[in-house]
Amino acid sequence: MMDTIIEPGDIARAYDFGPTSSRKDSVLTSPVSLFRKEHAMTRDDARRALGLDLNRPTALVQLGTGDSDVNEKMTAALSGLLGWKDLQVVLTKVPVDKDGNSLAPEGLDLKVVRYFPLAKVLHAFDAGICATGYNGVHELLPAQVPTVFVSNIRGTDDQEARAQWCNDFGFALRADQANLADITEKVKMLQDPAVRKRLSNKCAELPNTTGGQEIAAMLYQLAVEQKPVRSKSFTFARLMAQDHINRGLRHVANLGLRRVALVYRFLNPHITVQEIDQAPPVFGSHITAAELHPLIKSATRYEHLIEGASDSYRKRREEIAFAAYGKEMIVTKTK
User: Fold this and answer.
1) Which of 144, 155, 214, 335 has the fewest CB atoms lying closer than 10 Å?
2) Tens of pLDDT along 197-228?
3) Rounded alpha-carbon distances, angstroms, from residue 324 to 213, 280, 295, 330
4) Is it true that the peptide bond before 117 is cis, omega within 30 degrees of 0?
């Protein structure tokens, strides 16, 4: 029922043996990443933006916290950084458990940063420790950050397969997520300058992550040139009926009541007695928490724009916002 199915590419696609790996009904693009060499800050500029020392080594740790096993992985990873002279460790969240107890061993200089998009400042880091999610892999490796991947095994994303591919082909180090000692050992390897240089140089061989531009071009073509592919009416009706049946009798009953309510409202419509102009929304491309917090909490609507977007893009966004928020309808029933 879709005009096109778009599948973002994955650098580790060769190790994908999941349920959709053999399907041929999608358009495969290059990998998608927020990292762009032309937009990324230099090492020194990125460190200034994050408030880091320009001359000390820096490691980025992007691992989750919460469940006990996840917390243990965080502690094991941070333990592997002990002994790295003058190291400053950057995290994206405070390393504490649900009771507020620290997960970090004594002796590390920790700094929690909130910067978006982090891809813009990745050149600040000499090493990275990260889960093997799609975004982490396709940002850290194109930025040539020497990385140890510690996979999460929840959900449908096969992070272990992606980590194994990166390890087998020399782009990163894979830690056994089920072995805390191995996590510590693999992270400790990042203290060796030769290991970091080897991994960084190897990452320079990766293909360009231009999938975002490719997908944007496809969506543009769909919007302005192609006629939509019409689904077969019988097939569409059958799938919709099957969907409703699968949800159970309560859903079917609610669907019927909704139809009755719509018929009633058609015969007995509300009457609009007053229209009030709404305050125009605030438009901006803010990225810091300090800037975004008051805007999001404000009673005035906030519309976030893509940084560096064209004037025509902004104009169209303003038109859509006015159509959506332009007037407040005060509705009463007068008869």
Assistant:
1) 335
2) 999 999 999 998 999 999 999 999 888 875 66
3) 28, 11, 19, 15
4) yes
Query: What pLDDT, on the 0 to 100 scale, is given for residue 177?
Result: 95
CB 124 within 8 A of CB 58: yes
3-class SS of residue 60: strand
Q: Which of 177, 191, 175, 176 is nearest to 82 (CA)?
A: 191
Contacts of 137 (CB under 8 A, 6+ apart): 11, 12, 130, 149, 162, 166, 172
Mean pLDDT over the full length of the chain: 89
Q: In this predicted model, what pLDDT tens digit does every residue of 235-292 receive, in sequence order? A: 778 777 888 788 888 888 888 899 999 999 888 887 665 555 667 788 888 888 888 8
Residue 98 and residue 190 share a domain: yes
CB 177 within 8 A of CB 160: yes
Same structural domain, 204 and 281:
no
Same domain, 206 and 140: yes
